[in-house]
Amino acid sequence: MSQICPDLISFPESPATHPDRWVLMNVHTRQCIGAGPEVLAVLADPDKTTSETYRVWKIWRFSNIDGLLADPSRFKRDAATWGEPENLDHGTLVKMLKDQCLLIDDLESYRARFDFKKSLLDRQRFGTYHQQLGQQLIAFERRDPTAWWLQQKFTPDLSAIRQDNLYGAVQDRFLDEWLPKRMKPGLRVLDLGCGAGTIAQKMARLGASVLGVDPNEEYIRLATERAEGDATFQVLDLNQPRALDALPAASFDCIYMSDALLFYFVPYEPGKPLDLAGFIADVKRLLKPGGTFLSLEPHPVFYVQPWLGDPARPFTVTTEYLHTHWRINPPLSVLARPFLDSGFVITGVEEPASSRSDPHVPQRDAVFASEFPVWLLLEMKLADAAS
Ligand SMILES: C[S@@+](CC[C@H](N)C(=O)[O-])C[C@H]1O[C@@H](n2cnc3c(N)ncnc32)[C@H](O)[C@@H]1O
């Protein structure tokens, strides 16, 4: 016996121009279709045929492929671009609604699908965000995730952060304003998980003496090729035992980490937790007295929520906060607590957001990110040094 999926929402996509084009979305799985209002009647009573044909638009797309900070709603925006609908009979419609988890036969087996994927080709289990992205990139699009990540964040020559998405509109602008207040000539900085070194270079241009480390040899090769000022780079995998032992104690004024600490809280590979306590002990050992740990991580309220509503008045549907099943980053208290318990105090907090009217990025992105901060910056010092 079919029933409406309890995770379903429906909303008109472009009510001013196409009042008869609705989106039906499963907010947990992000599956969706475009539908005429006659389809809504079928949701109310799936066994009853109320029309000869039903209009459906196949609008589902894996929009995160556009970038980690691109509109994550996973459907084709603007009903004017949907093209012609398919006209389905009742049986075909019900099958499609079931395929998209908008109608379900059995709540228990539907719930069982909320589990880690067992392989790259597993389409039965919904899996984590990273598994979904990995499946899309590697199995379906045959793209190299390492190269993809660089392309969605940086300009082709890697000298700068792209300005046409929220990396530029939020992170880059924030860093350009904020880093000069913290960096100064001679400051010794360690950038952990530095990627291809673009942010490390930004700090070096402000006079800091920066060591960037990352396990990805290609990223370090690119970073080294472009190194200028006092910036050096080294292949180093934080997950290897004693990875940081070669660096002398009390040798850094500042340890910086962006979009990399999250892996200690939500492991990239499900079920393989990383050693957070060991990591924090390393940070404490490496910091000079009075030194600072700077953590810039995706903001728990922002990341991978569907962005809905009018572009000028967007809203989101939050499906999880304290228990991170699908998101990739921890809630604020879970992020901060291990550091506080290890003797750090938080000396600064920032929530970088965008300007509503940023002309470089789509209006929806700019307005959405002006309300929901994209990153969370925590500035921490060891308690005895901070007092
Ligand atoms: C999302 S990128 C962020 C890169 C850079 N910090 C930035 O903000 O542009 C995550 C980085 O963490 C690095 N990373 C992943 N596992 C790591 C590990 N075990 N040790 C050090 N870095 C790691 C990746 O290679 C990647 O460069």
From TrEMBL:
Biological processes annotated in GO: methylation
Gene3D superfamilies from the UniProt entry: Vaccinia Virus protein VP39
Pfam families registered for this protein in UniProt: Methyltransf_11 (PF08241)
SUPFAM superfamilies per record: S-adenosyl-L-methionine-dependent methyltransferases
Domain of life, source organism: Bacteria
Molecular-function GO term, any one: S-adenosylmethionine-dependent methyltransferase activity
Protein name: Methyltransferase type 11 domain-containing protein
